[in-house]
Amino acid sequence: MEILSTLVELVEFLSIPAFIYFWWKKRKARLAAGENYQNDPDYQLNSKIKRKIGIAFVVTFIILAVMAPSGDERLLNTLEGEDKTFYDTKFNTYIAEGKTEDDAKKLAIGDVRNKREEEKKAKEAEEKKLAEEKAAQEKLAAEQKAEQEKLAAEQKAEQEKLAAEQKKVQEEQEKIAKAREKIAGWEQSGKLKYQYLSNGSVNVILTERADYKLHGASEGDKLELLTHDEHERNALTLASQSMMLVQAVKEAEIQANNFEIHLRGDTIDGEGYKSVGDVMICEISGNKNWKRNDYYEFYNSTSRFWMIDGL
Q: Is pTM, for the whole model, over 0.90?
C-alpha cells in the first residue's frame, strides 16, 4: 500500500509539469498550422497526450484522496511525547476491557482529543487569568501613580502656600522694621513723644513741619483739590499729612490710646511778630480705623481738628 501510494504521488507530481509542457507544444503547433490546425497531425498528437496527462492527474488526485488517512489516523501519526504515552495507556485500558482494536483506537483517540481540548481550555483560562491579573496590576500601578502625583501636587501646593505665607510674614516684618526705623528717627529728633497714662496706656504726640501737600492722593484727587477754596485746600492737605504720620506709627505696631498731631509753620501775631508755631492741631483715637490713604475718612474720624485763624 505504501509503495502504491508513493507511485501515485510520483505520477501526480510529474503530471503537472508534463501537462504544462504539452499545453505549450499544443499551442505552438496550433499557431504553426494556421486556420486548419485541427487537422494538423502534430497538433492532434500533442492534444491527445495533453488530455491523457490531464486524465492521469485527475485519477491520481482521486486515488490519493481515497487513500488519504482519516482524521484519526493523521492524529495518531502525529502523536508523540506525553500525548503518545496517554494514547497508549488508554488504548491498552480499552483492550483490557474487551474492546476491539478498532474501537479501542477510536476511543483512545477521542480521549486524546478531549485531553487536548481540556488542556486548550485550561491554557486559555490561565492566559485569561494572567491577562486579568496583569490588567489589575497595571490598574493598581496607575492608581498608585495617580495617588503619588496627587500627593506630590498637594505637597507642592502646600509648600508654595507656606512659602507665600512666609514671604508675606517676612515682607510684613520688613515693613514693620522699616517703619520702626523711621519712628526711631522721629524719637531721636524729638518729633515723636509718648505720654504714659496711669492706666498703662500711652498717648502719642507727633510734631512735624506743615508742607501743605496732598499725601496719599491720586491724580484725580489732586485735580479735585483745585476746585476747593484756599481754606478747604489747607484743611485737606494738613489732614492728609497728619494721616500719613499716624499711619506710620500704626505700621510700626505702636499701640496708642490717642494721637495728638501738631503741624507747625510760619505765624505772625497781632503785633506783626513772626515766629514758628502750631498752624494745626488734631486728635484721633488709637482705635479709629479708616481706609488707607483716605484723608476724607481720616478727617471725619478726628475728635479735634483746629487750624490757626487765616488758614
A: no
Helix residue ranges per DSSP H, 68-100: 71-78, 81-96
Q: Taking Cα atoms as reference points, which of 170, 167, 164, 178 lies closest to residue 253? A: 178
Looking up cell 529728633 gives: 189
Is 248 in contact with 204 (CB distance < 8 Å)?
no
From the list 202, 276, 215, 278, the residue with the least C-alpha distance to 242 is 215
Cα separation, 254 vs 199, in Å, equals 17
* Closest alpha carbon to 207 in 292, 282, 298, 308: 282
Ramachandran region, residue 200 (left: φ > 0; alpha: ψ -120 to 50; beta: rest): left
Residue (of 240, 230, 289) closest to 263 by Cα position: 240
Q: pLDDT digit string (tens) for 169-212?
A: 898 888 888 888 889 999 999 999 999 988 888 999 999 999 99
Residues 95, 89 contacting (CB under 8 angstroms): no
Question: Cα(203)–Cα(195) distance, rounded to whole angstroms?
Answer: 5
CA distance 124 to 210: 97
pLDDT tens for each residue of 41-62:
877 787 888 788 778 778 777 7
Q: What is the DSSP string of 150-171?
A: HHHHHHHHHHHHHHHHHHHHHH
Query: Could you give the CA distance from residue 23 to residue 38 in angstroms, rounded to a whole number?
Result: 15
Neighbour count for residue 67 (Cβ, 10 Å):
13
